Amino acid sequence: MTATGPLPQRRDLPTVADTEAFGRELAADLRAGDLVILDGPLGAGKTALTRGIGAGLGVRGRICSPTFVIARTHRPGRAGGVGLVHVDAYRLGSTDADVLADLDGLDLDTELCDNVVVVEWGAGVAERLTDRHLLIRLRRAEGTPHPDPDHLDAGAPDVGDLHEARTVSYGWVALDGSVCADRLG
Ligand SMILES: Nc1ncnc2c1ncn2[C@@H]1O[C@H](COP(=O)(O)OP(=O)(O)OP(=O)(O)O)[C@@H](O)[C@H]1O
Ligand SMILES: [Mg+2]
């Protein structure tokens, strides 16, 4: 079950660089077996945050939106390091049962033994993989306009180059959706 109430920690992320830096910071506390669920609308910065987590863990390979695959495994960059499995649940089955079957097919419980598993669009589906997960909610900051479609015209800066503030709230959550003090307590 996903947590519906407020999460204990909050941070402002004015630029994409701040979002990536926040991911690197989070990675310092992550270890093999940890499940991170990223919640937020299209373009919220879930992949950008995952890129930061991957950089902080020091994993191999470029982290990008897994468009043609549902999950991508990034091996540790050094012996004894931890790997990262990056899952995008957006394209998983159309019914809850299908989504669960698809997730089962990915064998994530086995992957969790040696890796941190990050699931974009995982809220409401991936929680049951572990007893506790780190839930991260990314939102566009209040008052931040949506990207203007006119910016997509030729000659205008790519929409991805525009800095728009995000806010993030996060915390460890138990299987029943209750918020925990940390991954243990
Ligand atoms: N403060 C910010 N934090 C994160 N991304 C930002 C920020 N400001 C601008 N951006 C831009 O927003 C876009 C976020 O894209 P990203 O692919 O990370 O989102 P996503 O949540 O993974 O999207 P999807 O739902 O399609 O998977 C990038 O183009 C990034 O440069
Ligand atoms: Mg993404």
How many independent structural domains?
1
- CATH topology description: Rossmann fold
Class based on secondary structure composition and strand pairing: alpha/beta
- Can you give the helix content as a percent range? 10-25%
Compounds present? adenosine-5'-triphosphate, magnesium ion
Rounded to an integer in angstroms, the radius of gyration calculated over CA atoms is: 16 Å
Structure description:
- With 185 residues, the protein is of the alpha/beta class.
- It has a single domain (26-144, 158-174), classed as P-loop containing nucleotide triphosphate hydrolases (Rossmann fold, 3-Layer(aba) Sandwich).
- 21% of the residues lie in helices and 24% in strands.
- The protein contains 4 helices and 7 strands, in the order βαβαββααβββ.
- It has helices spanning 16-27, 46-57, 96-105, 108-111, and strands at residues 9-13, 35-39, 71-74, 83-88, 115-120, 132-140, 166-174.
- A 7-stranded mixed beta sheet has the order 1-7-6-2-5-4-3.
- A hairpin with an 8-residue loop joins strand 3 (71-74) and strand 4.
- Helix 1 crosses helix 2 (46-57).
- The two termini are 18 Å apart.
- Mean pLDDT is 88; it is low at 151-161.
- Magnesium ion (MG) binds next to helix 2.
